[in-house]
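Hi R.,

Here are the chain sequences for the assembly we discussed:
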Amino acid sequence: MAKSQVAMKVNGKTVEALVEPRTLLIHFLREQLSLTGPHIGCETSHCGACTVDLDGKSVKSCTMFAVQANGADIRTIEGMANPDGTLHALQEGFREMHGLQCGFCTPGMITRAYRLLQENPNPSEDEIRSGIAGNLCRCTGYQNIVKAIQFAAAKLAGVPFQEAAE
Amino acid sequence: MNDVTATPSSAERAAKLEGMGCKRKRVEDIRFVQGKGNYVDDVKLPGMLYGDLVRSPHGHARITKIDTAKAAAVPGVVAVLTADVLKTVNLAWMPTLAGDVQMVLADGKVLFQNQEVAFVVAESREAAADAVELVEVEYEPLPVNVDPLKAMSEGAPMIREDLKDKTEGAHGKRKHYNHIFSWQAGDKAATDAAFQKAEVTIKEFIAYPRVHPCPLETCQCVASFDKIKGELTLYGTFQAPHVIRTVGSLISKIPEHKIHVIAPDIGGGFGNKVGAYSGYICAIVASIVTGRPVKWTEDRIENLSTTAFARDFHMDVEIAATRDGRVTGLRCYTIADHGAFDACANATKWPAGLFSILSGSYDFPAAYCLVDGVYTNKAPGGVAYRCSFRVTEAAYCIERAMDIMAQKLGLDAAEFRMKNLIRREQFPYTSAFGWQYDSGDYQTALNKALETTNYKKLRDEQKAKREAFKRGETRELMGIGVAFFTEIVGAGPSRACDILGIAMFDSAEIRIHPTGSGICRLGTKSQGQGHETTYAQIIATELGLPADNITVEEGNTDTAPYGLGTYGSRSTPVSGAATAMACRKIKAKAQMIAAYMLEVHDDDLEWDVDRFRVKGNPERSKTMTELAWAAYHEVPPGMEPGLEAINYYDPPNFTFPYGAYICVVDVDVDTGQVKVRRFYALDDCGTRINPMIIEGQIHGGLTEAFGIAMGQEIHYDDDGNVTTASFMDYFLPTAVETPHWETDWTEVPSPHHPIGAKGVGESPNVGGVPCFSNAVNDAFSFLGSTHIQMPHDHWRVWTAAEKLGLHV
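And here is the predicted structure of the full complex:
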């Protein structure tokens, strides 16, 4: 199959490559760029394990062709840490609040939460829950993920994090 | 010792170790939050090929022809395997863990939809997918049966022609061509007598639908056969890597020392990743045939429709009781649907698992159960989806039945349970089925749950709402679910448990390095449970070394000691015990070194958090770090240098975690919508190693229980089509539906476990499902309804309301 030239920015770096037109973005990221953070959980855009940030939106990269991402600015979990190499507030929050177990949904979940906090820096619990409804987790029951995102929101806002009373 | 500052207190030193009881942050998370986990699909070997499966569109059909020519001609296709190819290496069929045999690729006919028919191997996953479409298979459809209750009827379609003339199965006599086994437990005569004398009895048919564990990562592997060395390296999503190595060796005839099984990070298991699947065998054969590594990755539809369903138990349960509410007998007849092959993952001697935990938490004087396993045109499996073997089926059955009896007696569900719970002074308690429950204080747990949730007030509110409903002032019903479950986990004692003859012990090997850090390797395999964190905490407490100084490694069969893997909540009860016992061997040696260095007798030393000190002279001491160094350069004369130990732990008994759960729901009778207002879970898992991880396990298990009770079902239509094989139609709760969880605990240690821990990961699934179902059923019970089958999705709840005439 004839290949197409694509160029895009991934985690701040420009990449150029030849891809089959039918190559999915997730396969391009994982196999051609060796960015194995985003995962494949369903291939029907339900589970969100493949979520990346693309031109300011959360995108499920299993349901988009690499050629459609030509010219885009993409961030994956590998580009989430702070410029000085320390963990992003969300990465820290997920660890502090035990917001992950097997870790398979985590890259997509954190990437989704990153965009959620860009759009709504101080979300309520309900807003967080509906904001991550496109990302499935089979391990945590979501309660600690909600706390992890609240932790990050507080840290990014520079205010102390207060856990809601049980 | 040049340290001039005062030695910190024992408590301060203990806190720094981050040992047992500490909410230690997880070691694993550092890599996972940065996307640096290493899962099977991340494995990329030079020259790697991709395998993809051709699957049957029919539920039952004879194969008259398979033509692979067009597929083989697709550019990039390297090989196409069929049963005929596999027969040349004697691998068209494989043994199952349950004593049956299973087709690797369809041999002559297909027995369930999506059954594996051919395996295409290609240079890219796209080429493999293209070629799958071009494999031409001609089928002659056969009559289909997907109903286990009809499997043994006259004229039912014969599923297994290969067993046509076999009157004996792996577990005794077969009474029908679709019959797999009969298994019974308890005392039938005594139970029948109890029912004859009974003042009150109930009988109910309770079905636990077929569901699927559905971890977010599907099953996958990379097989790499080195022709020069004759060695196979197999990366895979394996909950039990050593079992895979042994079974792999038995099937393939590759000597076991030439098989290297590696289970890297696993994206959830929940029982789905215990078994050996066709995809693994095909990838291995393809690697042998092509001489190149072969990756096989399931997609979600393949996962839900072929690898490892759970439950599908159909239970006729009866309870006998006195008029004043004492249970006197329990009887249950179950039909177990195992699909087309008996590939359930149980201890080999227990074809119905540990289902005879059926008497639950109650003091039944007599009990009996009989289980018949049958074949149908459905996918094979029968795994323990986040539970010990068939324990959740038992817990669901007894907890529903107890509610139904309470209803008949006119007693409150909690009061009836309280009256019949095994009492504290009865432990160790031998149940009517013969299990010896190790420890518990059930009344305290139930009382704490009732008080914390203000149960009495909830019942008062419910009463008022029911009156209002009758007056037509509301269309909402309130339901209160009570469940008190007892699990049996930690398989298990070698006298009771084996898998294909291998005793179900488990292991830990600990090496302490000269500078006082160390590595612990185990036969278990974490799939998200946080083993790297918690095993190190056991070692920290046992040896007085900081948990941060201990590396925990699992999943490499070349380096890890032999073990049976992680499922059935067995890691803490078995390998956790092995870890503590290995530590104690190390500590005993360290004590001798300390005595030598301090020039005292061994018995003159006492342990203090992280050191041995001389009794009565605590300033004279040697820390474990000092002793580690000494073990490598100044051991007593005649002693071997080094500081390491290994323990294979054969548990003397199972452990019996338990819990009291309470759930409050509000049901809209016009829409069938069930809103979970409150869910309270009190768990007693014995000694608590890491409360943060325990709470996380309970949240996750409750969410799975919520999914099962409220919407999950692997459903087949009458033609054998599986209609719920994607996330479009198989319910997984999102953050929006998932309720808020309240957790609580009591702590009664296991008396036979070295550190008293019982295991916790599966309790919330076992207790959660009956609690949700009891809540929904309770909402309707005052209208005369005794049992509404799961799952309690809107449609079914609405239908139940319709049948009760509530929509007039």
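The CA atoms of residues 494 and 503 of chain B lie 5 Å apart. The mean pLDDT of chain B is 96.

Let me know if anything looks off.

Best,
T.
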